[in-house]
Fold each of these.
Amino acid sequence: METSAFDPPEGSLRRSVGRGAVVTAMAQGVRVATQIVSVIVLSRLLSPQDFGVVAMCAPVLAFIALFQDFGLTQATIQKSGIRHEEV
């Protein structure tokens, strides 16, 4: 089998990055499907008034979740050296 100049070198990250992207996409799909199923189940179990309260609270809680860690996880990962006190 011939190799070209455009083939990734042996041991490159291309294959593992591709697998990671597929796994991430599948996990996101499962997450969305679970959310859809949970809305369907809640709509059947709760009264219309109670489901309305849940529907009004959901966007507020989702907005609050955006600021859950204030980006500290990304900052910790990107920092080249971190002390125990900083963690």
Note: DSSP finds three helices and no strands in the chain.
Amino acid sequence: MPSETVTWQAIQAEVMDRIRRRIWAPGHLLPHDDKLALEFGCARATVSRALRELADAGLLDRRRKAGTRVATSPVRKATLEIPVIRSEIEARGARYGYALIARETAPAPLQVRSVMGLPERAELLHVVALHLADDAPWCLEDRWIDLTTVPAMADVDLGRISANQWLVENVSYTRGTLALTAGLADAATAEALRCAPGDAVFVIERATFLHDRPITFLRQSHPGSFRLTTSI
């Protein structure tokens, strides 16, 4: 019987050591998961978890039927820590303000369904809210939430706490997409951000998933002077 004392972290450390010592050089095909499980005396799932984590980190190239190889050009993958907008504003020494503009369950538009992988007529929770810093508009949040993935969101008082803050504090995600673009304010965005229609805005579009299940799609519009800083 496979040992339950061998952890995936221990296997990960051993695999990384073999890569560093060039026992497994770039391009090397690793033994099948079953063979590694037999070598390490553990369950196959434990090996798979260790190799999956290394593949996510860009150190392994893991493909169905083709097997697992040491990456020929290891790439450090960026990780995104989604900020709580309230904390982000208060960290700058500004006073935070929040206003819920709209909340409804509605059919998701085509763009949202396409990004989230949803069928036609899929209905999501649609939330529109404004975040302020010292009473000046910071960003307009236009968000769609899949309640089949996050059913607890249906009972959250979004007049008291933003969807951004509640999701960051209560829901984990395993993967996502992020797009940063320059755009022009339409009439509704201009009214919320107190600018003129057609003025430049900085737009963040982000979708998050729990494995294959969609959590949320967000379009976050900031005044054109907004600056995003992150680490890589």
Note: The chain has two domains: 8-70, 85-223.
